[in-house]
């Protein structure tokens, strides 16, 4: 990784509620990640972790609550403006399959950051080099391993110069031997001071990289604290039970 300066922002959710029909998926979530901080969100499947992340980049509009970036409410701001500031990396990469690796990064740079073709290509090549894929620019994503595809997705998100990055189970679809490389890349972003909100099942990553860990269950953050507190002294029976299953 290069050590290019990043401009990070704090991100905060206040009393976020989301329902799908009669199903209450988020039931009053408060969460703040300070600028440059890393928070990992853990919890069982279906507890609302992805919905929570989607609220942070305005892919999901909450029924109630507020979203703040750098201390300012952006809950009624232009969603595209928020997405420009908040990058997201998904479990299944979400690359354009019929485009080259380079184009996957160039196209959003042109449409979102309005860069010229030449400038976009230059930025894209720099970001690809950062994730170790300079030689893969002309290939289709399908010619790459899962780990390489996820690196492209990360490079694409970083090319937007986000102030906050969201990772939703970014390593869950990868073969085991490819997981560490992606986690190392994420740890590198954390150490560069980018604000990270990371949904993960990788408890080792949460313990070693996160400043704070939040445990979600049934649409609420049941417990949050330092990794040592959460993993070594879990208070609620639900967290104790969850940890006994995953550790
Ligand atoms: P997690 O990421 O923790 O597994 P999700 O946020 O994906 O949880 O989902 C929480 C709950 O909300 C689940 O019961 C899921 O089926 C439901 N859900 C998520 N998105 C939608 C949607 N668009 N419409 C209806 N139900 C949804
Ligand atoms: Mg999920």
Question: How would you sum up this structure, described in words?
Answer:
The chain is α/β, with parallel strands linked by helices and 247 residues long. The protein is built from 9 helices and 10 strands. A 6-stranded mixed sheet has the order 6-7-8-3-9-10, sandwiched between helices. Strand 1 (11-20) and strand 2 (23-33) form a beta hairpin. It is globular and about 55 Å long. Bound molecules: adenosine-5'-diphosphate and magnesium ion. Adenosine-5'-diphosphate binds at residues 20, 23, 25, 45-51. Adenosine-5'-diphosphate (ADP) binds next to strand 2 and helix 1. Residues 11-243 form the ABC transporter domain. It comes from Amycolatopsis ultiminotia. One of its GO terms (molecular function) is ATP binding.
Outline of this structure?
By secondary structure, the protein is an alpha/beta fold. The protein has helices at residues 49-56, 79-85, 101-111, 117-130, 146-159, 176-191, 203-209, 227-232, 237-246, and strands at residues 11-20, 23-33, 38-42, 64-69, 72-73, 86-89, 164-168, 195-199, 212-217, 220-225. The strands form two sheets. Strands 6-7-8-3-9-10 form a six-stranded mixed sheet, with helices on both faces. It has a four-stranded antiparallel sheet with strand order 2-1-4-5, covered by helices on one side.
């Amino acid at each position: 990784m290069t050590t290019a300066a990043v401009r990070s922002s704090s991100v905060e959710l206040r009393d976020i509620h989301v329902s799908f029909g009669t199903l209450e998926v988020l039931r009053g979530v408060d969460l703040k990640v300070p600028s440059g901080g890393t928070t990992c969100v853990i919890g069982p499947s279906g507890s609302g972790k992805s919905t929570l992340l989607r609220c942070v980049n305005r892919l999901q509009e909450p029924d109630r609550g507020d979203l703040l970036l750098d201390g300012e409410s952006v809950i009624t701001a232009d969603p595209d403006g928020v997405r420009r500031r908040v990058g997201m990396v998904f479990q299944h990469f979400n690359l354009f399959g019929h485009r080259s690796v380079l184009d996957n990064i160039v196209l959003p740079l042109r449409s979102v950051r309005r860069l010229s073709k030449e400038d976009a290509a230059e930025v894209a090549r720099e970001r690809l080099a950062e994730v170790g894929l300079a030689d893969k620019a002309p290939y289709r994503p399908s010619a790459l391993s899962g780990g390489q595809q996820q690196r492209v997705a990360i490079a694409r998100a970083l090319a937007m110069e986000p102030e906050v990055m969201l990772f939703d189970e970014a390593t869950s679809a990868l073969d085991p031997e490819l997981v560490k490389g992606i986690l190392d890349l994420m740890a590198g972003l954390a150490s560069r001071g980018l604000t990270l909100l990371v949904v993960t099942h990788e408890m080792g990553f949460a313990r070693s990289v996160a400043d704070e860990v939040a445990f979600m269950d049934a649409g609420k953050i049941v417990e949050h604290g330092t990794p040592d507190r959460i993993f070594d002294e879990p208070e609620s029976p639900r967290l104790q039970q969850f940890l006994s299953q995953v550790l």
